[in-house]
Amino acid sequence: MKNDIILSGVGGQGILTIAAAIGMAALESELYLKQAEVHGMSQRGGSVHSNLRLSDKEIASDLIPYGQADLILSVEPMESLRYLPYLSENGWLVTNSKPCINIPDYPDIDKIIKEIKKNPNYLILDAVKIATVLGSPGSANIIMLGAASLFIDIAVEYFEKGIQKLFCRKGEEVVKVNIDAFHAGRNYALNKGSSGK
Amino acid sequence: MQRLMLLGDEAIGQGAIDGGMSGIYAYPGTPSTEIMEYVQNSQEAAEKEILREWSANEKTAMEAALGMSYAGKRAMVCMKHVGLNVAADPFINSAITGVRGGLLVVSADDPSMHSSQNEQDSRFYGKFAMIPVLEPSNQQEAYNMAYTGFELSEKLGVPVLIRITTRLSHSRSGVEKQQSKSQRELSLPEDLKQFILLPANARGRYANLVKSQTAFEAVAEDSKFNELYPGKNKKLGIIACGIAYNYLMENFRDQKPEYPILKISHYPLPRKKVEKLIGSCKEVLVIEEGYPIVEEMLKGFQEKGTKIKGRLDGSLPRVGELDPNHVAISLGIKVSYGSKVPGFLPERPPALCKGCGHIDVFNALNEAMKKYGGGKVFSDIGCYTLGALPPYNAINSCVDMGASVTMAVGAADAGLKPSVAVIGDSTFTHSGMTGLLDAVYKKSSVTLLISDNYTTAMTGGQSSLATNRLEQICLGLGVEKEHLRTFVPLKKNHGDNVKIIKKELKYNGVSVIIAQRECIKNVLKKKKAKGKLSS
Ligand code: SF4
Q: Of A38, A41, A61, which has the smallest distance from its Cβ to B250's Cβ?
């Protein structure tokens, strides 16, 4: 088993929380893990990404080679396109649809969506909207994780355990909100499951 | 698999805690910051009463660590690669004084300059100082090197340099912990002259260091961090240093490599192993992160007929960070690219946070400077360096910590008027104060604008030694009271702030303006922490 995942977004959007949740879940299911993060200057609102590798065998490189990522999980639509050379032929692109516009030359969003839809396997969701309907607008990232979890070879119970561990210091209430958000995202993906061509 | 999930940086921190460290010294700098932060947040370190406060700069940190070693205890000092330039004086000389308690110097390099001004390779410093260098290839090795490094340092009697690069610093993986060792007792040197580098002593100690090189090499030769793996295909031999070994092995995930491979993570070069590999292969490919230092050392073999390939002959890119793809190409392995990045995608560079005080500082400064034209503002290293980008375009230099002040002095000497320096609070106490003393002494015509946000913001909000001290420091250095001004950089104060700057720009002497407003990120962090406490 091997899952190579690229997480992408904009500095400050919290992709490291998603990475940590997957990391915890991987630990629970006794997989090997390597996760390269971006710290420093680009965290000030620049493009950020993280390479996350899971395997049942020992992993050599901290970085994913070109054409080998099984999943790009992006919390921002334009950023999802930046890492296409890394996506494998059968890989999935899962992205939030809400743009983060903090640059003057942000392209037309329709153009971006069109480009995303050129990929054989994609899933676009409005995580912020789902989160708002759920009554927990702060949990969009965990909704994204829930949606993408369909394409990660870790059982749901381990994700739940991982989320539990990650948020337990913030109290039972926060844990529950996030587990609900995870399932909301996952159910959305299950229902939409056919968006791949 | 009960293992800790640690960043490379954190693995070094944990290894040192378990290795019997009594004190850690550092100045924040990407990608090294998380070593100190990890030790500061560690319950274990608190229980062991390990000293773990930030220092004013890398030089003071290095010297304090040497002092602790003098007193018989184990110490570690951490910095980013350019920080080692600042600490170079005590670093080089610490190889000559030698150590007592084990002394580990960690320098984190930043190839591809993700958050830096250059991509210098700290292994050169190790060679320059003539001390052993350890270069971990993964998180576990990072832990092991810190854990065993103190003893290596004590055994060889010199500091040991651990060189790590961004990728490993900021990548997380499972690490197995070893049993914790106890700290050493306070003691004085047996030879009280050991640390007195008067020429007569220094010559003796230096001769000793030169003589010890054979011993250092012998230890590297037997080091478990250096390993020669046999291979059937002798057309090519591969030398892979530090993290480059991972990128190499990534390309042989499903089959064993057919070539002989020498993994090097402990310098000086294990000469016998290198000779054995080269002697049996037609060509040798050197894969190393950073400068082609090993490749250059092997040039002698080239003359004897073995072709040496690497970053110098173009087999690998001469500059920038390596990755598995570069290594694949150098080995003639096919790289399968996914689809292309669409051409219309703009860059998304970092920017100052919304509501950041530096923004109001730059807006006021730009207006006050308008009539003088551009090109007269020197600046420094921190979040405010982003003032170089649009829409501000407010600064004209960023070279090294503290250089804004002294470059402004030099330009004023040359006749530039006004000559302005913009520096942050933490950078000012790191290396700006001595430059200000120069200015005061020479009565230079410079305007120094200190944008004080009460923290070291760029690296994530570490404490700043300048907080609540800046005005006293400036007055103490001899800045005239009437020309030490302060303001609060807020939109509503814009008009007044412009007036203050305009007035000081006209002064023929040293003036210092301190803009005082806390970093927004820190304010939010504190609010969040407080909310948690009260709920
Ligand atoms: S981190 Fe603080 S100082 Fe840096 S840009 Fe953001 S608000 Fe400004």
A: A61
What is the chain A residue with the closest CA to B30?
A40
Which among A41, A85, A115 has the least Cβ separation from residue B350?
A41
Q: Which residues line ligand 1 (CB under 6 A)?
A: A 44; B 352-353, 356, 358, 383, 453, 457, 519-521
How many Å lie between the alpha carbon of A24 and the closest alpha carbon of chain B? 9
Q: What is the pLDDT of residues B231-261, one digit of tens each?
A: 999 999 999 999 999 999 999 988 889 999 9
Beta bridge partners of B103: B75
Topology of domain B357-522, CATH: Rossmann fold (3.40.50)
CATH superfamily membership of A2-192: Pyruvate-ferredoxin oxidoreductase, PFOR, domain III (3.40.920.10)
The Cβ of residue B214 has, within 10 Å, a number of other Cβ atoms equal to: 10
Which one, of A74, A140, A129, lies nearest residue B348 by Cα?
A74
Written as one string, the DSSP assignment of B376-441 is -EE--SSGGGGGGSTTT-------STTHHHHHHHHHHHTT-SSEEEEEEHHHIIIIIHHHHHHHHH
**How many helices, marked H, and strands, marked E, lie in chain B?**
22, 18
Residue identifier of the C-alpha nearest atom 5 of ligand 1: B352
Note the pLDDT tens digit of each residue in B19-63.
Answer: 999 999 999 999 999 999 999 999 999 999 999 999 999 999 999
Q: Which two tokens mark B392?
A: 């501000």
Using CB atoms, pick whichever of B5, B251, B353 lies closest to residue A44. Answer: B353
**Per-residue confidence at B1, pLDDT binned at 50, 70, 90?**
very low
CATH topology of domain B227-330: Rossmann fold (3.40.50)
pLDDT (mean) for B280-308: 92
Strands B4-7 and B171-175, by their bridges, are antiparallel
**Do B3-221 and B357-522 share a fold?**
yes
Query: Which of helix, strand or coil describes residue B322?
Result: coil
- CA angle centred on A80, ends A77 and A84, rounded to 5°: 145
Instruction: Please give the order of strands across the beta sheet that includes B103-109.
Output: B23-26, B75-80, B103-109, B160-165, B133-134, B266-267
Q: Kindly state whether A58 is in contact with chain B, defined as any CB-CB distance less than 8 angstroms.
A: no
What class is the B3-221 domain?
alpha beta
How far apart CA B348 and CA A101 sit, in angstroms, is 10
Other beta carbons within 10 Å of B154: 18
What distance in Å separates the CA atoms of residue A182 and residue B481, rounded to the nearest whole number?
Answer: 60
Nearest CA in chain A to B347: A47
Q: What is the spatial distance between Cα B192 and Cα B207, in angstroms, rounded to a whole number?
A: 18
Which positions in chain A touch B534 (Cβ < 8 Å)?
A: none
Residue B316 has pLDDT above 60, yes or no: yes
φ, ψ for residue B178 (rounded to 5)? -105, 170
Report the predicted TM-score, pTM, of the whole model to 2 decimal places: 0.96
Residue B407: other Cβ atoms inside 10 A: 21
Q: Enumerate the domain spans of chain B.
A: 3-221, 227-330, 357-522
